Amino acid sequence: NATGYVVTISQASGQLKYKSWEDSEINGNTFTFANNLDAGSVYQWWVQAINGSIPGPSSSRSTFAIGDPQGNTDNGDHTWTYLFQTGNEVADLGHTNIRDSYIGDGHPDHSHGSSPMLVGTDCEGALTECRMIIALDNSQIPLPMAANIHSASVQLQVSDQQFNGATSLTFSVHRLLTGAWSQSGSTWNSSSSGINWATPGMTAGTDYNSTAISSTTVMAGSTDVWLELGHDYMQMDGDHAWIIIATPDAGAAWMEFHSSEGELSVRPMVTMNYTNVDSVTVSPMGTTTDADTSVQ
Fold first, then answer.
1. DSSP, res 39
2. Hey, is 278 helix, strand or coil?
3. With left for phi above 0 and alpha for psi between -120 and 50, is residue 89 left, alpha or beta?
4. What is the pLDDT of residue 296?
5. Percent helix, strand, coil in the chain (nearest 5)?
6. Which pTM was predicted?
7. Does the pLDDT at position 285 exceed 90?
8. Cβ density class 216-254: b for 16+ within 10 Å, e for less
9. Residue 123 has what pLDDT?
């Protein structure tokens, strides 16, 4: 039986060792930090049991990090805003994390999970089409489960573009219906490795919702794009995914966007707005309404 423990905490700047017979941080088999840890830092820890004067083997090493929220704002109107961007809170672990990729019929069996994102037409050669996919798992942040999502949007930074006979691109955002999509395994033909879309490039009504969440027209020469993502049935702890389809006003056109593998400052950023208000009672009529119903 163990008569004592040595707990080691390691980070980039060095290691600290805590001994149960010397340090108050260890109480029985419980360890509690006496001081706050550094936000945004990654730590490793392991423990070694001592029996009398004989040390036992060290445990396996485990990793944890302290998040450093970059945008959790109280808007003062019963809404709050949280910003998601890959690596914005813990850079070494890529937390928070946005998954993104694109699929193109110019290379129908090639995955683009670690590439900049292409969307539009003639994107991989003449008469080709590319579509973008973005996904966000809200459960990576302990958002208040009693609240509801009010709205959501994504900002994309343009890295390249080409307009041939077109002056604008209209982006339509649709909810991805299949849960089989993966960032690293998706192609024009497949939603993930070994699992095909209903038809190559996705089928409306089967692989994605045929009704667009939003439609945004972007002019040639734009350097960034904001797209609305919010839809019914979004959950505070849900894993949500969207497909983005771009249609030129004439001719052909495509845009390329920095992905979550790019530099932090240009990675996609999702703005999530949530609220603790479900309904409003209007006095003196006593009428109860919600955000989707008008009152006269």
1. T
2. coil
3. alpha
4. 61
5. 5, 50, 50
6. 0.88
7. no
8. bebeeeeeebebbbbbeebebeeebbbbbbbbbeeebbb
9. 98
